[in-house]
């Protein structure tokens, strides 16, 4: 049976120094961030996910955004080479964690850069954002890693947000959801539902009809509830101040059999 394991990583005490690129810097409350992170982890656990904590990286302010360090496809863990140089030390412990879970490990190599927030998987289609953090060599290396395993890799230009998944994710039935003002090319997605809030474009599929969402997207939560989904809402305000969202705080390992 496919596993319901998810990697998470405790926030660094230096979280407030995390990168901001497309938004104004705001003061981050580190204690509140830890509380919010614990609630986020609790929400995963409550919905049947076994959470595995990657060893903390106290010197890496952005390490809580663990999604950016590894991309899973089937049982292969592709260790990224973050486009942000300050994030490159984050990957070593993640590699150890996924290897310890029995994943096959592959890597993005120089000159490639790629961050997990740029990768959206819908079945065997793997969308990859080519933007500020993921370069063309990173896209090529992702193709080389996953196409032989059966993936179809679709590259998507990203210029208005940090990562592809800052503006686009997908519902359990594969419908792509996105916030059009922050997307470069909505027409690339065949079955597409626009959402009224930027934070509404981020969902983590918890299983069945349950969608983990940020409290900052109440209109979109209402829209999804009206479509028969069950939003599970968490407040992640302190991570949003650093351009984080619900997707980037975990990596679900769905292709492992355990
Ligand atoms: N996948 C994600 O959405 N990651 C968010 C990363 C935020 C972090 N402050 C960064 O700029 O790298």
UniProtKB/TrEMBL annotation:
Keywords: Hydrolase. It holds the Pfam family ADI. The keyword Signal does not apply. InterPro entries: DDAH-like (IPR033199). It comes from the Bacteria. Belongs to the DDAH family. This is N(G),N(G)-dimethylarginine dimethylaminohydrolase. The gene is ddaH.
